[in-house]
Amino acid sequence: MADRFDDLFSPERLRRNWQPGGGKPDRPRKPVSPDSEAVLAVWDQIHTYVERHITGEAGDLFVRLADELKNMLLLRFPEEGPEPAAEEREALNAAIEELISQMEDMFEAIEQARRIRPAGPP
Question: What's phi and psi for 41, nearest 5 deg?
Answer without folding.
Answer: -65, -40
